[in-house]
Amino acid sequence: MTEEDLGSFADFGGDGDDGEDASAKASDGTDVDADAGGERGRERGRGSSDDATDATDEAGDAFERVAYEGASGDGLGVLAVSEGLRIGQREDETRLRAYVTSANRSNVRLGRYLVAPYPDGESLFCKIVGLEYGQRFHGDDANEIHARRAMDGSGIDEDDYTFIADLEPVSVLYRDGGELRRRMPDRVPKPETVVREADDDEEIKTALKIPDAGVFLGHLAVGGEKVRTGATPPTIDYRVTDDYATGDPLAFRHTLVAGGTGSGKTHTAKNVLRQYLSTERTYPVEAGSDREVRAAVVQFDPQDEYAQMHDDNPEAGPEDERRWEREGVAYGGHDDTVAFVPTVGNATYTAAHHGAEQIPFTVPFSMVRSRPWLAASAGLNDNQYPALQTLLSRFFDQHGDAGTYREFCAFLDDPALKEELDESGRIHEATYEAVFRRVRGMPNGVFDQDARPITELVEQFVKPGRLSVVPTYHVSDSRATETVVLALASLLVDEKLSSDPRFPRIAETPLIVGMDEAHNFLADADTVQARQVVGKFTDAAKQGRKERLGLFLITQDPQDVAESVFKQVNTKVVLNLGDEDAIKSVNIPPALAEKVPYMETGQMVVYSPDNSEPVELLGLPTCLTRHGRG
Predict the structure, then answer these.
(1) What residues make up the domain containing 484?
(2) Which of 208, 225, 258 is the last residue before a domain boundary?
(3) What is the per-residue pLDDT across 65-79, written as a single tens digit (0 to 9) for each?
(4) What DSSP string runs through 558-608?
(5) InterPro entries from the xrefs (predicted)?
(6) pTM of the full predicted structure?
């Protein structure tokens, strides 16, 4: 048979049978009524009429369709029990499915939140994790006729199909003394319970364990669209706990912002840091103290972008500001922003893109006394590192804290010293020479430059309510950059963890240390030098909650951050990442991890087990401070 033999199916108006069906019916003696052919096509498989009279009656009455224009009330459909209705302790033991009525199907999306009430007033809060069409009637639609009709644009009749949503229970909601509370799913709802889309702010926040107050990150979303409610504003703000009354502030249990180029990583980081700098956000000076102060934020900035937080965003209009005020979001340039600019060799720093004050500084070689790993240009092995410690100790015993890098190099370039240490068996000659080469290989101009030492600027560098930015974009040598950043970061960490701090200002001030491109500074490595650095920051991460020290790590390569540091991070903010290893490393639930490569700019997944259920968010489209150099 050719396509010409089939002719145009439009002539049949959807009411006739194809040639093969007609021949088959004629051969078994069945009386065929052309006007009823379409309806019998839908009934095919249920059995034929017993006689011609029954067939005639069926043709005359036709199939009476349910008159349905939409869901009654707020319902999307009902819980179906055809394949069982079960809630188990394990995910693979749970079977929870809802039949979605035809009028509601086009608006249903994966990830949407639904509510199924119990008869006693409690309710089950669920998430859609699967959507499926099924045939309502037995039949075969994989044939030429169905295909041609569909290609002619006649569409489908939704009543011919079932539409099932697979649900994952999240929590049970109940009232206790008038207060809405949540507990783990522990009871199965009734069959044919009407399910509705969650649209109440209190209901959604309680079910997902989202705090009412704290540091603003963005708005709850599903599939890149904000979740809407009937409240004003209609969006649901997501916040991170920041109050000792409900546990340790998560700022001091560390945050990771991970995202690829163009994902909105820096934009997001600026917006979060702006909240920590709010005049209303304070923390106790020490545990149990009644006196509270604002946190200091120190941000290491390899791309020279964060000093812009001093300035208002010229792209933010009055409507943006009204919206932020309604939602209690801190916005606008932060006046107390200072750029602490490292003086390294001949590097020069220009700052036409921001209006923040600039203070130049240098790293004094005296900082190496307690941080030997700063003095070597390459990795040291287990023999070389103790040798370097011995040499530094002997040098500073002779020169005091005034000793410089140049003087140390001259100190090492002494054959008599090398011979003495070799003959005494303290440092082998080969080890001595290896240490000397690494010390001499340090980039030019890192230590003791023509600027005030950072140790003399601590009172200005760490100040409650101040954003201190350390730009390093102007320093072309990556090893010099690494030395400066680790020198300052370790100074902050050491003082925070010390039982006898040299700088009480650091010890007494709640502190958030932001580190962009964190993978460059906190990477796992085999050298003793790298192990010393990672060990220091691991200790800082472990004790941060006690010492009011928070790490705010920003990276596009989270898989390169040392695991011992990474596993101490409680809050992970994950934007678009295209690398499979990077996605695996952030260790977020699989259902959310699958979304990460497809997320648009500003879309993010937040995984903070001590704050809320894992959720998808949309960040603010407009930065709260100046952003970009355009």
Answers:
(1) 242-365+445-618
(2) 208
(3) 444 343 344 689 999
(4) GGGB-HHHHTT--EEEE-----HHHHHHT---HHHHTTGGGPPTTEEEEE-
(5) HerA_central, P-loop_NTPase, T4SS_component
(6) 0.84
